[in-house]
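During the reporting period the student researcher (J.K.) took over the structure-prediction task from the postdoctoral fellow and processed the backlog of single-chain submissions. One of the processed entries is reproduced below for the supervisory committee.
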Amino acid sequence: MPDVRVNGVSLHYVVHGKGPSVIMVHGSWGDADNWAQVLPLFAEHCQVVAYDRRGHSRSERPPAQGSVHADVNGSTGLVWVLGHTNHLSGPLALLKGRGPSQASWNRLISGRSASRFSRSVTPRPVCGARASTPTFPW
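J.K. obtained the following structure tokens:
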């Protein structure tokens, strides 16, 4: 279970599978483990990166209050760092959790993160444990 330094904060992440890259962004009250039930399904078809957002679980908790801007910088920084160390392959999709506490926050993080990339990056909702067969944007 590696950690990587992104924008001055240590982020914990896991990588599973091979193929096009999918970054899984968890909700406000969770961590990368929220994806445990669907991660193996995606890993059969693509490379999956699940990470603990800054201040969550195994990632470093910075002294300042978190914000959407900080989370967007975290997700885009993670993609940049892993992409430049050859841990990611394209195309890339950002997946967000779906639930009452997750929908709007993750929509902001995934959408704003995707808009920062010149290559095709698509934020996609996932139904969590209820997803029986993943669908892919490519």
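The committee noted the following: The longest strand covers residues 9-16.
J.K. will present the remaining backlog at the next meeting.
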